[in-house]
Amino acid sequence: MCRCEGGCWYGTSRCYIGLLNIVSLLAGFVLLGMSIYLIKYFDGYEDPILVGLGVWGPLAISIAMIVIGIFGVVGICCLRKLNGCAKCSLSFYLVLSVVLWAAVLVVSSIMFVYASTAQQVADDPPYDFDGAAEDLNTWQLAVWNKCCFESNYSTIEVSLCGDDPVNGVYPGCENQLDTGDLCSCYTDQEGYDNIASKISNEGCSVWEDIRFKGNQWVGDNTTSGCGGGEPRPFQQDFATYVHDYVFPVGFSILGLALVMLVASCCSCCLLGSDAGSDGDAYKQTRRHDDGTLQLDEEESETIALA
């Protein structure tokens, strides 16, 4: 190996990108298969953020990994052919790597913010919610009323939050175990009606398959399903699930971002060496200690015919 322009190791960069993109292709196809399974698994979920993180996010990343892997492998193979296709392929690879790097940072940020929002909804009074927290709270309680109350897994129907407390209890919280600030109610009636109208029995059956540390999120309250019959523990179970799912995936995505950042630097190194334009960088890697050029069998035959 020899140094290329900028002090990078040309050979190391080539090996890194080559191995990375073989792994990227394999991992991309595996993730694509998992994404197809998740499309069926999340069918009936009404939370757009959870569906996006659980289905469309992995699907988009898998396709990006496959496309990037193809360009990377083609670019490395072109280096061996001593022609100009390497620069073209590596240029596309560099652009796609930077785009994927930025995308995974955005996705991981959304995942961490979503986990924080779910925890806020589980721990804070509903009267203080706005924006994403209000939307998530409304969606959770629509699921509660449609899948827990109407399915007779609980006798508590959650309603619109009242404006002023009576003897320390807000209207809408009188029949709940946790009264006052820690009761569960929603503040957006129009948003609630819109979400509730889209939740079907089939959607509820999907949620019955979800378990948080052994407890069903939607299910018989005598076996800890539906928060044991209380809406606030129901919301806390959801926050636990999101935390346990999102954080490992989020940190894994950050690891992918780091790998892609290094790959981008290596592709810059190869492009900066003018590799693939006239074969000089490749030829330099095959010189003997005495300075003579090591030729492969095809090149030797070409010289002999000349």
Automatic annotation (TrEMBL):
<protein>
    <recommendedName>
        <fullName>Tetraspanin</fullName>
    </recommendedName>
</protein>
<feature type="transmembrane region" description="Helical">
    <location>
        <begin position="91"/>
        <end position="115"/>
    </location>
</feature>
<dbReference type="GO" id="GO:0016020">
    <property type="term" value="C:membrane"/>
</dbReference>
<dbReference type="InterPro" id="IPR018499">
    <property type="entry name" value="Tetraspanin/Peripherin"/>
</dbReference>
<feature type="transmembrane region" description="Helical">
    <location>
        <begin position="19"/>
        <end position="39"/>
    </location>
</feature>
<feature type="transmembrane region" description="Helical">
    <location>
        <begin position="59"/>
        <end position="79"/>
    </location>
</feature>
<dbReference type="Pfam" id="PF00335">
    <property type="entry name" value="Tetraspanin"/>
</dbReference>
<keyword id="KW-0472">Membrane</keyword>
<feature type="transmembrane region" description="Helical">
    <location>
        <begin position="245"/>
        <end position="271"/>
    </location>
</feature>
<keyword id="KW-0812">Transmembrane</keyword>
<keyword id="KW-1133">Transmembrane helix</keyword>
